[in-house]
Amino acid sequence: MSVELSREIWNEIKRYINTVDRDDAAETLVSVLIDNDINADDIKSTFKTDTEIKNALTSYLDDHEDYEEDEEDEEEEDEDY
C-alpha cells in the first residue's frame, strides 16, 4: 500500500475515531507503515499537515532511536569480553 493511499484512508476514517483515541490510532498507523518499509521521510512529507501523525512519527522515531542505541551499547560490551 502506498503512503498516499494510507493518507487518504486516514483522512476518511479519523473522523470516526474519538478524539481521545486518535493519538493511539495514529501511532498504530505509523508503526504499520514503517513495518511495511515506508520511509519516515515519506510519511513526514505525505502527512505534513496532520498533527496526530507527525506527533506519532516523532514519538516512534524517538523510541526506536533509544532502542537502537541500547543495542549498540550491548554489542560494544560483548566485544570487550
Topology:
Blueprint: H1 3-13, H2 22-35, H3 40-46, H4 51-80
Helix pairs in contact: 2-4
- Biggest pleated-sheet summary: none
Strand content: under 5%
Q: Helix content range of the residues, please?
A: over 70%
Determine the N-to-C terminus distance. Answer: 45 Å
Number of helices: 4
Secondary structure tally: strands: 0
Q: In the residues, how many domains can be counted?
A: 1
Identify the overall geometry.
globular
- Rounded radius of gyration (Å): 16 Å
What key attributes describe this structure?
mainly alpha, 4 helices
Concise synopsis of the structure shown:
This protein is mainly alpha-helical. It is built from 4 helices and no strands. It has one domain.
Describe, in plain words, how this protein is organized in 3D:
The protein is mostly helical and 81 residues long. The chain is built from four helices and no strands. Helices cover 77% and strands 0% of the residues. The model has no long low-confidence stretch (mean pLDDT 87).
